[in-house]
Amino acid sequence: MTYQVEPLGDHPLTGFASGNAQLDEWLQRHARTATGHGTRTYVLVNVDHLVVGYFALAPHLLSRAQAPKRLSRGAPEQIPAILLAKLALDSSVHNQGLGAELLVAALDVIVVAGRRVGGRLVVVDAIDDAARSFYQHHDFQPLPGQPHRLVMKLSTAARALGMAWP
């Protein structure tokens, strides 16, 4: 089946069910409002234009003191970053490899934005241990003392996508 990623518009969201009530509720009740507050939501739609996944991005700052030393050398006190705030798939498409594809799509948007406006890191807060394992499998590194907050250098993401940095 063919899927497409696009910015959240007037897509119907009530049928989205990832299996995580918190992620479902955020998409259905808060995603559109969050856009006015600086968060951008992108949806993964199938050929019938039904939402089967989504991710949300927001500008972010990470304190140099929170970052691993290897990522914070030479960085300002507040390291500019992009927060991968949400990422979820509808349960109807679980176990098809679409999670990795959705993450790649999110990183593509993040790297393009980072090349235009700057930034050094991608930050994600894993909602649970399974999500943490997923992100670690895709080269995100947990912050010291915060196993569910993970980071990746934008340059690492760009290299993985075959994109130039900066």
Question: How is this structure best described in words?
Answer:
- The mean pLDDT is 94.
- The relative contact order is 0.15.
- This protein is an alpha+beta fold.
- Helix 3 packs across helix 5.
- Helices cover 33% and strands 31% of the residues.
The backbone outline, from C-alpha atoms, is globular
The SSE string, one letter per element, is EHEEHEHEHEEH
The structure class reads alpha+beta
- Summed over residues and divided by their number, the pLDDT gives a mean of 94
Largest sheet: 7 strands, mixed
Query: How much β-strand is present in the residues?
Result: 25-35%
What's the total helix number? 5
Count of distinct strands? 7
Strand order within the widest beta sheet? 1-2-3-4-5-7-6
**What is the radius of gyration computed over CA atoms, rounded to a whole number of angstroms?**
16 Å
Amount of helix? 25-40%
Could you list the spans in which at least 5 consecutive residues all have pLDDT below 50? none
Distance N to C terminus? 34 Å
